[in-house]
Amino acid sequence: MFGQQMSYWGKLILGLTLVFLFVTGCSSEKSNQDNNSNDEGSEIVFWHYLNDRHELLKRFAEDFEAETGTKVDVQLFGGDGFKQKIIAAAQTDSLPDLMTYSGGAGDLAKLIETDSVLELSNEIGDVLGKFPETLVKTFSFSEGNPFEVTKYGSYAVPMDANNMQFIYNTDLFAKAGISEAPKTWDEFIEAIDKLIAAGITPFATGMGSWVIDPILNPYEFAYLGQDQLFNIKQGTEPVIGSDYIKVLKLFEEMYQHDAFADGIATMDLPQAEQMFVNGDVAMIFDGSWGIGVFNQMNPEFKNYDVFMPPTPADAKYDIKITGGIGVPLVVGKNTEHKEETLEFVKYLVAKEQQQVYAEESFNLPANLEAAQSEEGMSSALRNFSLGMEHVFESPGVYKNPNAGTVLQKGIQLIVIGEATPEEVLEDLAAEIEKGE
Description:
By secondary structure, this protein is an alpha/beta fold. It folds into 2 domains: 43-161 and 324-389, 3-Layer(aba) Sandwich (D-Maltodextrin-Binding Protein, domain 2), CATH 3.40.190; 163-322 and 393-433, Periplasmic binding protein-like II (D-Maltodextrin-Binding Protein, domain 2). α10 (244-256) runs antiparallel to α18 and α17 (401-414) packs antiparallel against α18 (421-433). Strands 1, 2, 3, 6, 7, 8, 9, 10 and 11 form a 9-stranded mixed sheet that branches. A two-stranded antiparallel sheet has the order 4-5. It is built from 18 helices and 11 strands. The protein is globular and about 65 Å long. It is 51% helix and 12% strand.
């Protein structure tokens, strides 16, 4: 009996020993594999929040590894908590090598002051020169910056961009006998008249929402220029007697020529986008992201192109448009793989990758070489991207925030014929004079 028990326990011990040796051997083999991997090339960690572009970014990482031997661990953190995750990681010195930054210049300023992110102009200044200056300035800090950053320099590379322009249905333009997109305001009004004559509703956009400001801005700049516009908003120069009345008269002229779709004064942008995709209107004022929206609504809808806001004959200055960085790339200051990470940044924003990114994600390439190329992008994407050269630097907001609200409501009344430009201008002037 005792011998039988010894035999049982002996077999059990032997079995456990073999299991232990097997596990240890596997662990040792994995460790050797890991060490060999580290010897062959570095691994950089890339955090992002772009749910719709995760597979594309992974593919870029695989191609980069094939070219350089550097592995990129692409990690997706979707949802609203990405910004907080970055802040928490910065506080514990655990930021990744690279990240798509979520937040504005003021948010990034906090990370700069804690020495958490890498200044890039001294590292890849030649790359920054491939983008419009207005984009690079978004996350650049110099003396006198409003965020009181003392470590001057540029801290982000734009991976994509956005701006707002007019989009037109090429089939409906052809039906109305319009051979090309309007470049001047007179051509724009002529196109509206031809569309009306052909029984086509000319225009819709989100005039009942935030879109009023972006459609207003090009003409504020065209008639007033940046300095005078800033002074008017600050209340240091009168709006009465300025050329601001000419800005408002443009909207009145569109109303007089029956340009607007029914319900324009209370329309939001998604409603206008659906009308455009359905062919119910010939033109829409929208952001470059609208291309992706159109694709979601109807992947077969491709018969459209883009044009800059048309220039009035009596404008004093060039047309400028609303736009900026869509997704900035930021490098962690404490990365142990700085050279490899910077090479991957260069790879992501190179012409070839930018064109692929634009076509597959429906987001604008920030790289001007990609935008100006005749290959690799649709005409609509290219024209949107070329618009980045005309993006304005913000003239600020009204010192009295209510002045902006009064102006928006006034324009909503102009486009339905219930107020004149003179009446709206008087209301705006009165609100500006009230101060803060």
